[in-house]
Write a structure and sequence with these properties.
There is one protein chain. The protein contains 9 helices and 10 strands. The protein is α/β, with parallel strands linked by helices. The protein has a single domain, classed as Rossmann fold, CATH 3.40.50.300. The chain has an 8-stranded mixed β-sheet with strand order 3-4-2-5-1-6-7-10, with helices on both faces. The longest helix has 19 residues. The relative contact order is 0.15. The structure holds adenosine-5'-triphosphate, magnesium ion and zinc ion. The site of adenosine-5'-triphosphate (ATP) has 22 residues, from helix 2 and helix 8.
Length: 321
């Protein structure tokens, strides 16, 4: 019998050990086993809040499910989980009476779409979560290790704005995740997205592509598209960073009511310009995911200060700020 390496273990036998190292090691194995059954993992992120990450995550997951793929949707926005509301899901883990294969069943939107959000774990959804980095890291690891995702074609991961603990944990735990970076056309948002793309470089997260949301406004009266802000910035930025541009969709008031009512609008298949534009984005996501190279990409060797790519020369290294 091998000796346990955990200093906190008084037993000395690995089999009986409940030490922290052994728990982490077991969890690593569970994560590996869970992720091994998931083909494409897409992290929806943005440097900026309110640009439509959760809207895109939800509608993308549902569109892919509607196309017949087996999809998981994981909400790692732990302080502001929105996914349950956007899908009208009210299930609570306390109602679960039986595990599946020893794992916790996720919420189910339909046969093809499984969903996990912190709200599922909360008795009162209006409670606030006051957690720091390590707890968030652990929660996200449990979302992967303890949930019965089964075989999936896509796992879509909705993240909070910025490049904090949540996207960091996803990047370090899911090595083959790809980032879908959401922006809006204003220069201030584009500047934040440039930061997101640099973050991807730093943590070796492959970029699936850039998506421009709220690109113009479709007038409900004459159905003409009006450019509220400048447009085309997302496409130019994708070109600057040599990543794919996945498409743009306009502002459409139906998107807001769909999100509030738990009936995702962009995936519903109507004939509005926003729905048609979103379908083209989903086509591009499928194409990009299918053609993605197997191994991580943008960065080169690790920087000793921030454990990221060689393109980090200290000055822009997150660990130096
Ligand atoms: N194309 C669109 N047209 C109209 N409204 C939109 C569009 N995209 C998103 N919205 C609305 O904008 C608001 C913010 O969207 P959402 O919550 O998806 O952004 P987010 O980036 O996830 O925000 P946060 O950073 O707070 O997580 C929501 O009310 C949503 O319905
Ligand atoms: Mg959100
Ligand atoms: Zn008009």
């Amino acid at each position: 019998m091998s000796k346990c390496s955990s200093s906190s273990c008084g037993d000395g036998k690995a089999s009986a050990c409940g030490g922290a190292d052994a728990v982490i090691a077991r969890q690593d194995l569970a994560i590996e086993s869970s992720l091994g059954r998931i083909r494409h993992k897409i992290l929806v992120m943005s440097g900026k809040g309110g640009v439509g990450k959760s809207t895109v995550s939800t509608n993308l997951a549902l569109s892919l499910a509607n196309r017949g793929y087996r999809v998981g949707l994981m909400d790692v926005d732990l302080h502001g989980p929105d996914i349950s509301r956007m899908l009208g899901l009210t299930q609570c883990i306390s109602e679960v009476t039986e595990k599946e294969d020893g794992l916790v069943p996720p919420m189910r939107y339909n046969d093809n779409l499984k969903v996990i959000s912190l709200e599922y774990m909360m008795e009162n959804r209006d409670d606030t979560v006051i957690w720091r980095g390590p707890m968030k890291n652990q929660a996200i690891r449990q979302f992967i290790a303890d949930i019965n995702w089964g075989d999936l074609d896509y796992l879509i991961i909705d993240s909070p704005p910025g490049t904090g603990d949540e996207p960091m944990t996803v990047a370090s735990t899911i090595k083959d995740a790809m980032a879908l970076v959401v922006t809006t056309p204003q220069e201030i948002s584009l500047a934040d997205v440039r930061k997101s793309l640099n973050f991807c470089k730093h943590v070796n997260l492959q970029v699936l592509g850039v998506f421009e949301n709220m690109s113009g406004f479709v007038c409900p009266h004459c159905h003409e598209t009006v450019d509220l802000f400048k447009s085309g910035g997302g496409e130019r930025m994708a070109a600057d960073f040599a990543v794919a541009f996945l498409g743009a969709i306009p502002v459409d008031p139906m998107v807001v009511s769909g999100g509030d009512d738990g009936a995702p609008y962009l995936a519903a298949g109507g004939d509005s310009p926003a729905v048609a534009a979103f379908a083209a984005v989903v086509d591009n996501v499928e194409k990009q995911a299918a053609s993605a190279p197997a191994s991580p990409p943008m960065g080169e060797e690790a920087c000793s200060a921030c454990a990221s790519s060689a393109s980090c020369s200290g000055g822009s290294c997150p660990s130096s700020s």
